[in-house]
Amino acid sequence: VSELREWRPAIYRKCTDTLWLLLFCLFWAGLMFISGYAVVAGAAERLVLGYDSFGNICGRKNTPVEGANLSGLDMTNKKYVFFLNSCSLEIQSLKVTPLSLCVSSCPQQQLNSLEDLQSFARNNGSFLCVYNLNISSYTLNPKAAQLCPTLPVPPSKSFPLFHRCVPQNPECYSKYASVLIRMVNEMDVFHRILSGILARRDTVIGLSVLALAFSLIVVLAFRFIQTLLIHTLIALVVFGLLFVSGVLWWLHYDYRNDPSTELETEKENVKFLLGYAIFSTIVTVVLLCLIFVLRKRLPFSVQLFRIVGKIIGRIPFLLFQPLWTFLILIVFWVFWVAVLLSLGTAGTAQSTSGGQVEYRALSGICYMAWYHFVGLIWTSEFILACQQMVIAGAVVACYFNRNKNNPPPHPVLSSISVLFCYHLGTAVKGSFIITILRIPRIVLLYLYNILNQKKNAKHLFNCCFCWVCFQKSCLRCFNQHAYTTTAINGTNFCTSAKDAVSILARNSAKLASISCFGDFLLFLGKVFVVCFTVFGGLMAFNYHRELQAWVVPLMLVGFFAYLMSHSFLSVFEVTADAMFLCFAIDMETNDGTAEKPYFVDPELLTFVSQSNKLTEGRKHRNTRPFHDNDGTELQPM
């Protein structure tokens, strides 16, 4: 089929993969139904603000629950959840058995007697006993021991964002965290991540801004690339890798030999630092070997990115596409999390025999949560697919333009309009295929956590997980070429994918080595951003050792730095892939004569020819027999 195509940007187009677009709209109708149901039946503020054992949400006015005498109280000034026995929490039917109350402040010091409770209530206005017990009866009522917290009351601190009084005693904190783990899957990790981030949120925000600044610097370096800049970038990457690895090993040694390391969270910091140091060292060794092997291809990489930079210079608005995509993804993720919180708290309040209140989940919530989770993956992949199609469409419009000095007007806006008018269904179908591979990956992770104790199953799942990840990476590249073909011919996803594979299969020898080294150089740019952001985080967090489990926020900062750099540098990656596919099509459909002149820029044609000569020369040297200078074959001694 591909030989019969004209392979020119289609002027008259028709809608492609319409049924898939209709399916996506129906899927989103289901998401909207779940969102509406979650808002009506859920109570996300109950999870965020917390609630007591009598159904009162802390920090707001409440409505009474039938059969619960202490419900319906005004808790506007009581914003924190306090457990009467925080050191001995137990769970029965997913409910914490000790009583919990809404209090105005958490006790900062240990309280050893009922007189201390009474004094704390009078001085701070925070009543730690059940609501119907008067403050003057704390020491007089014979039932005060059952209606007041277990003595001694350990010092506690309000948990940021979730308004819980968390005991600061290491033993109590450990028990408290273990109960949270059993009550909510991996709640302890979530607890530490949030507490670590919120305790040093200014540092985390500052490091995120630093990652954004480094990403912009790398983008400008690739846009206005010169040989000196590439050498400087590689030198900085090597320096950053060696320096970060050395700092991680030094911090691990320093923390391990620190006599004040007693808390369990501090010991976990040591384990995390050892894992980071080993991983960083392995990455450093592998990248240094690759840099040494590929050092002779450096001049061609400079020329490659100079050509890509020239295309982006003709379409400067391409550099803003990752920013808009990132903002749209952030808005969607915030919406998704809000619906998930509401969905997780959807339930009916029912009073028990002791006057307490239980929230029982409604039937079908589990299926709605899985549907909502699939919506997260599919919609996120769809947004990324739209970005790829917009960039590919703009590059195609500029490549198949005879007058290179006079590019078509508004290629980005034209590509967006073509996408929304004709090819949204193609983006939906391509993103659905990625989603199909992502869901088994999540299922494998879930089964891996269940069967973590069985070694044979563990190795089997590791192999399956790696195979699924490899397939997803290959399929993502495959989708990108299909989107570019759709931007040219206006065909549906399957036809475009078949045509793209046919073209690339016949030209893989010419373009594979060039594209691979370009991707490697872009990866070095991402490593540069991550290295120096993580180095800044190491310096900032190490001076605040009182921050518990600070290595987890550091890992998140590193992940955000990689995500940010990948978002910006993906413009160069998609542009280069689309350019090479257009080049392969140009070489097959034209011959350079007056009747069929090439569309390719002369600089790109020269670059590909020189690169292929270098590759063929190396193959020839590796396969030919050894000769002396006058051409006679050397005989063995």
TrEMBL record:
- State the Gene Ontology terms under molecular function: transmembrane transporter activity
The source's domain of life comes to Eukaryota
Q: How does it sit in the membrane?
A: Multi-pass membrane protein
List residues traversing the bilayer: 20-44, 204-225, 232-253, 273-294, 315-339, 382-402, 520-541, 547-564
**Keyword set includes Transmembrane:** yes
| Signal peptide interval | none
Q: Which UniProt keywords apply?
A: Membrane, Transmembrane, Transmembrane helix
Function text: Choline transporter.
- What protein family is recorded? Belongs to the CTL (choline transporter-like) family.
Query: What name appears for this protein in its UniProt entry?
Result: Choline transporter-like protein
Gene name as annotated: Slc44a3
